[in-house]
Design goal:
The complex is a heterodimer.
Chain A (H helix, E strand, L loop, with lengths): L1 H23 L6 H11 L19 H11 L11 H11 L2 H13 L4 E4 L15 E5 L2 E8 L10 E7 L10 E7 L5 E6 L8 E12 L3 E2 L5 H18 L12 H14 L5 H4 L6 H7 L6 H29 L8 H23 L15 H8 L10 H12 L23
Helix pairs in contact in A: 1-3, 4-5, 4-6, 10-11, 11-13
Chain B lengths: L6 H17 L2 H9 L6 H11 L17 H14 L5 H15 L2 H13 L4 E4 L15 E4 L4 E11 L6 E8 L5 E7 L5 E6 L8 E13 L7 H36 L1 E2 L2 E2 L4 H29 L5 H27 L10 H13 L4 H13 L1
Parallel strand pairs in B: 1-4, 2-4
Antiparallel strand pairs in B: 2-3, 3-7, 4-5, 5-7, 6-7, 8-9
Helix pairs in contact in B: 1-4, 4-7, 5-6, 5-7, 7-8, 7-9, 7-10, 8-9, 9-10, 9-11
The chains are: A alpha+beta, B alpha+beta.
The complex binds flavin-adenine dinucleotide (FAD).
Amino acid sequence: MTETVSLATEQQVRDDVRDWIALNWNVKLSLSEWRELLADSGWGAPSWPARWYGKGLPATMNSIVEEEFFNAQVVGVTRKGANRLAAQTILAHGTDAHKKRFLRPMLTGAETWCQLFSEPGSGSDLAGAMTRAVRDGDRYIVNGQKVWTSMAHISDWGILLARTDMDVPKHQGLSFFLIDMRQPGIEVRPLRQMNGHASFNEVFFDNAVVNENDRLEDEGDGWRVATTTLLNERRNFDVASKKHTGFDRQEQIYVEEAEEIAVALAPHSWYPQREGRIDLLLPRAIERGKFGDAALRQEIARLFVLQRCREMASQRARAAIEAGGTPGPEGSVGKLAGARVSRECARVHTIISGADAMLDGVDSELNGTVAEIFLSTPANSLAGGTDEIQKNILAERVLGMPKEPRNDVDRPFKGVPKNAL
Amino acid sequence: MQYVLTEEQNAFREMIHRFLEVHSSSSRIRSASLTELGWDRDVWQQLCAEFEVPATCVPEAYGGHGFGLTELAILAEEMGRALYCGPFFGSTVLASLVISNGATDEMKKLLLPELVKGNKLAALAIAETCDRWRAADVTMVATDDGDHWRLNGEKLFVVDGLGADFLIVIARCAAKGEIGIFKVSSRDQSLSRLEMQGIDRTRRMSRVRFNNTQATKISRAGDVGDLVDDALDQATICLCAEMVGGAERLLESAIEYSKVRFQFGRPIGSFQALKHRAADLFVDIELAKAAARCAATAVDDGDENISELASIAKAAASEAYMSAALETVQFYGGIGFTWENDTHLWFRRAKSSEVFLGTADWHRERFIKQIAA
Ligand SMILES: Cc1cc2nc3c(=O)[nH]c(=O)nc-3n(C[C@H](O)[C@H](O)[C@H](O)COP(=O)(O)OP(=O)(O)OC[C@H]3O[C@@H](n4cnc5c(N)ncnc54)[C@H](O)[C@@H]3O)c2cc1C
């Protein structure tokens, strides 16, 4: 019964998108001209409210609309930076003034956003953020440091979690700001990883300024806002299955889009290697004449089994989210399984390589790809919450085991033991 | 069998440890590994002059100190801990051991004293494909043109090959296919040496091409494959000691960090999850260390089953070192994944050592076949 209803609506949405595309898509427009038209139409962000550049459709329709765009080879809204995350957060917690000022350029790509959460002193313990925002009349003065900030070097704006009160428990002393990245008080430096790439940045605040008006929700309510961002981050991660890499076409608008995507993707060219490149195991084993080795076949098969189970588990989780649920702690299962796949892939690639595993750069197999697997796979046990944190989530929230006793939430933050800044 | 180090051995270890702490600090390693040679000549000269490192396990008859493999392994362990980058492993371990085990007395008298003083360096050229590190796998042929032996073909993964004054090459004598040991001057014009870009920048390797290159045979008549393999087993044991040293250093650094890094209002080392990881790792490393140490003393005791012990040690050390590297990154969290943090220097060595001189799989296979035989 529900199925037929949603099928009917789905068909209706498809028809509407097609009609609109037929009337409006014009390959001769520049990227920004087209995106402005698209943002105003509501088809750029179908699940957003009709009042705010959306169509007020259920989230399940996003992928339907995307599919129609893709099939018609129509350029969509920008996917760069943390634009989408920042927009989702502003939609949930911003004032009308914020929405009016920020949402449209987030879709068109006229402005780029970054996410300023992680700090050198607070990674697993995000609520332990120590970057200070001190009130000064109708503005705040920001001092401190963020780290692991993608795209900060090309960002216009950032969503910032900062401490406004040291005298209350940690979660209550945080506030959430929209901060202008183009100011003298902010310095962005590239952060180089152990695999040689510099995909992230460190961001230093030295008396940077943010207006009181650019705070989301009340002072001290920042953790609640950040929770929205984190929830959406997980949801986007869980739901986004295929990555858009642009259309291989010559017209100006496609070229512009491809350039935008290239800039966004370039620092992350090693991301497939970080997953372990399970796709390369079989071809490499065969090419190196080792597929006859029964022990190696077992290793590869074991990994494939793990990977297939993981895919099916994540499809189940995705279906639950699309059916309207929020991403639960079950996401940790997929995350942990993914980290395991990465690590095991590196191990099996080593078996396939033998002594060639000692090589790097052009001397390494597949022009350095194999070496990059070895030097990138540790990332998946860290990024987006470490394995230990995922296991704690599963044990405490899913399995209902007793919580660790804590000494950091029941007292003023300034009295909590922490690393010196 | 001697299970614990003597007082003298410990004093020796302590001395070298203190020297390397200063002269092979991570900043020195980083800068040395950026140079073309890959290591610091002054530090090596000091190791030769002050500690007479290359003399350690060379018999007194050839100018050495006549200590055993135990002492050489102690050195290796400290070198590995400090991630020393220099010709120690290539010249003092690999090449010298092959000469000591396999060359004629006359040739030992000629070659070893020079190596002992440290004014000459040698490198071993044996591997021809990526999975073969033993004499039986060698296919390169040495032909006798009446006056000289001539070598043709290519050798891979020649450790410290670029800095070596001469190469010790394992090849088959043309007529009967017997394994022989040859010496080639690296100044020979017909030789080409190319660096193989390694994941571990602290251990340099090269690809050496021989083009009708003139060589001197330094082994006796007949097949000396067994002697070469003995030397390789001894070198493997030293490698295991080196790996254990590196793994211990990683674990120490992870534990140190876990005491000073606070999250959630407490040092991360107070989380049982990390305590258990550290304890597991400690067990792995202690097991590998026991195997490496016992294998070294077994060589000095003249035991028969050295290849078995070498394989046990390498299978254990390959896994222990690699998991120490992965765990240490994990202990450090995000910062452990950065270039700036030193962990990746050891991580790279762990990865490289994992497969050097035979993968864990290869050693397990050899071991099980030997005990089943
Ligand atoms: C490749 C990469 C990409 C990243 N991308 C981003 C990004 O885009 N945005 C962003 O904000 N951040 C990003 N990060 C940062 C990442 O989220 C943090 O590194 C991670 O959350 C861990 O925090 P930390 O580095 O401070 O380590 P710490 O929190 O200091 O952890 C150190 C160790 O302590 C353990 N530990 C901590 N708490 C507990 C506990 N309660 N119980 C048991 N063990 C514990 C950890 O598991 C870890 O082993 C990225 C990191 C990497 C490596």
